[in-house]
Amino acid sequence: MLLVDFSVSALQAKILELKLKLEVYADVGADVRDKAELLVRERRLKRENERLIHQIKRLGNIERKERMRYFEMDANRLFAQKDSEIERLKREVAMLKDTEASLMLDLDNTGSALEELQEQNAKLISLQKENDEGHIKMMNDRIIATQLQVKIKEEMAHLESQVNNLTRQIAALQCEKESQNEALRLALETIGVKTKENVYA
């Protein structure tokens, strides 16, 4: 396009030069110039002027076509880039959904195990109260129950820690999913804006 601009400028300068020559010939007196030769030169300069004007118009049409072709190529490149970005975001959102579902399943399983341990703990406490058949047996039962309670409490603490970790992971994944959805929305809006700009262009 720089070459086209340069050619148009050069042609315009040539036209100006020819116009100046015509004015010079028009100012020369009849006693100094040959009228027939002047008329021939004048016609030749007019033809040259018309030819240059036609060439300027042709170059202007070429310039418009080149500009439209450049805009079209740039728009196609932008569309391809945004389509690729949208597909990538869709894949990431799908992966996040799968991961979230897996973590929710783990959370449910961990919660069920915690409930079972709580039931076992309640049964052991009830059993401890019911088994009062003798001091030795009672002490033995208490020792066993105490050991089991300690073990259950440790397992419960471990499971509660796992539940807390899974809950934090799910919250983080939810934030990331919302961020990806926002990026997808912005990408779609950008394509919509670019499409409108290209239509109005």
TrEMBL record:
GO terms for molecular function: ubiquitin protein ligase activity; zinc ion binding. The keyword Coiled coil applies. It is an enzyme of class 2 (transferase). Its EC number is 2.3.2.27. GO terms for biological process: chromatin organization; protein ubiquitination. Pathway: Protein modification; protein ubiquitination. InterPro entries: E3_ubiquit_lig_Bre1 (IPR013956). GO terms for cellular component: HULC complex; nucleus. The keyword Nucleus applies. Keywords: Chromatin regulator, Coiled coil, Metal-binding, Nucleus, Transferase, Ubl conjugation pathway, Zinc, Zinc-finger. It comes from the Eukaryota. Residues 35-190 form a coiled coil. It catalyses: S-ubiquitinyl-[E2 ubiquitin-conjugating enzyme]-L-cysteine + [acceptor protein]-L-lysine = [E2 ubiquitin-conjugating enzyme]-L-cysteine + N(6)-ubiquitinyl-[acceptor protein]-L-lysine. It is found in: Nucleus. Its main location: nucleus. Transmembrane segments: none annotated. Belongs to the BRE1 family. PANTHER family: E3 UBIQUITIN-PROTEIN LIGASE BRE1 (PTHR23163:SF0), RING FINGER PROTEIN-RELATED (PTHR23163). This is E3 ubiquitin protein ligase. It comes from Cylicostephanus goldi.
